[in-house]
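Researcher: Go.
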Amino acid sequence: MMNRLFVLLLLGTMTLLAAPPNPKPKGDGTLPDELLQIAKELGCGPVPGFYDSPGDIDPPYLYGWPPKNKKEETAVFWCHRKHKEEPYLLVFVEDLGSGRKGRVAYTSPSEYEPGGLSIFDWPNINFYGREDEGPYDPKHLPLDPFVYIDNPKEHGPKGKTTEYAPLQDSYDGISTLYYRHEGRWLWLGLD
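Model: Structure:
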């Protein structure tokens, strides 16, 4: 009798340990309370079904971008607005922490389902078709492949580079980079 009980306990333990971990929550792209409050003020909520797609995905928010003296001073997050032509909103927040509730520095609406947010860190990226094909350090990318969000026909300035790693929105091998230069926002699509 004891041997059977031992075998059953051993098999049960092995089954539990062999089960693949589920590292991401299912459902809405939850936001920390302080970012959720800012989203609500903008008429937004968490992105529905954010974690329901297969594969790994970074969270729909990131603290510390753009970089400031303290990581907690800035944040960026995706939220969702029902019944809008461009229902997804990328929100950039500054002046967080130390009892401050933060202020919205910029928003960028999108019709496309968002990916997870992270700091761009592809080592030795190349921009093919350029005279100086690279590779480039992720913190010092040329700005001329980027285009301005407010005027997609206008490229970033030639001869200038990023001063820090851009924000990366990515899922399933497709990435969009965001960067602010002299008060204007730029983006670049990568695959």
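Model: The radius of gyration is 21 Å.
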